[in-house]
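tool_call: predict_structure(chain=1)
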Amino acid sequence: MFISETIQYAISGITSGSIYAIVGICWSTVFLISGVLNFSTGEFVMLGGMLTWLFISWGFSLLPAIFFGVACTVIVAMLMERIVIRPVRYPSETTFLLITTAAGSVIRGIVLIACGSDTRHIEPFLGSSPIMIGDAVLLPQVIIVVSVLVLIAGGLVMFLDHTLFGKALRASSINQVGARLIGIKINRVRLFCFGLAGGMGAIAGIVIAPIEFTGYSVGLMEGLKGLVVALLGGWTIRGTVVAGLALGLLEGLGAGFISTGWKDALALFVMLTFLIIRTLDLTSIKKLVYRHE
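tool_result:
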């Protein structure tokens, strides 16, 4: 019984962790290459799920609804970069934080007015017949979620490491001034990164909707947890994937064996602990030790 429960909680954790990893990759893609901390990243997740549900409710079949849901989210992300981010003349991290937070609130408000506050549901892509692992239940949709993470992470690594445009993106992230001098269009790079993050976030929102539902407010916590795993992963794709799965497992096991009320609190606790540790340098730690001695 204990083993089956542990497996069940681990499955739940891996599912959530895969979504956190995808959202964390969205954060990393925009921040590393363009220097923008995009606090509306979670709204891309929400838009993907809500727009797909909306197209399905209009009579579209699943695949066209997914295509249009992702495409519309990419357009919204690129419009946000073009209209909200690019006109800022003297940007700073605080400025970007305020602007993107406000943009996310506007997107969330529009969805609330247009679709209401009720949660929505998309039918599972491969049906709802469970796969039994002992007494634990594995839904086919979970396999899709994990597969999407593998495809996104692997595809992005291949793209950045083995294509000319991907290498140009890496060059822009290392030195924007130098990249401009060799002819790389930084504005186009940033626009592409926002569109890419919008598409990946939308896909995350779509594949998780059959499991956790979707609604105007789902992007808040998903975006925050994506930021946590991006920080823990050092803003790298591989590190973010590992951090996302680790956080998901921690949440799943913690919610199962301790309390479901700890699920969201654990992510915030991990982020605060990490930031405090990063802030304290070795000298400060030594002073604290000597003081107690």
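agent: The longest helix spans residues 2-34. Proceeding to next step.
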